[in-house]
Amino acid sequence: MSVSELTVLLDGARKGDRGARDALMAVAYQELRQLAGPAMCVEASYSTLQPTEWVNEAWTRLSSSGVAFENRRHFFGAAAQAMRRVLVDRARVRRAQKRDVGQERLSLSDVEVAEPSGMDVEVLELERALSELEAFQPRLARMLELRYFAGLGLHEMAAALGVSPATVKRDWTYARMWLRERLGN
Length: 185
What we know:
Number of helices: 8
Oligomer: single chain
Order of helices and strands: HHEHHEHHHH
Number of strands: 2
């Protein structure tokens, strides 16, 4: 679906058009499924969270939030946050369950990202780092969130953040170095 078609559906849904809302729900769910494909390839032996389950949980959070998305950028930002929350919540539950048995890490190498940066990043470590980064560089934190949790590419991140691809490329270099240093990889 083109950017303009999604924008028209978002606008119609915001104005109360039931048909636009229904079409938007179908399109938005498909967008999330397409994002989850490249963002997450689960190893065969790792069965705690499948891509479809990840999308379903994120979609449930998005659709039950009651938020009327203003535009495509707003939708992708909310989707990335919902997908992030699902992984972080799962990691916290797993950590709590494993406390007495020994800790098992939920790593982003277990949940392979479309463009792994060579780092074995534990989801909760990434969450702490992103929360820290949000305090002084919110746009960079959003960019990392869009990349790691929504699987967006350079041009998609630029559109979602409302900046040029050159800015995203420059920021991506800085953010990856900051994250690598912060996580000790």
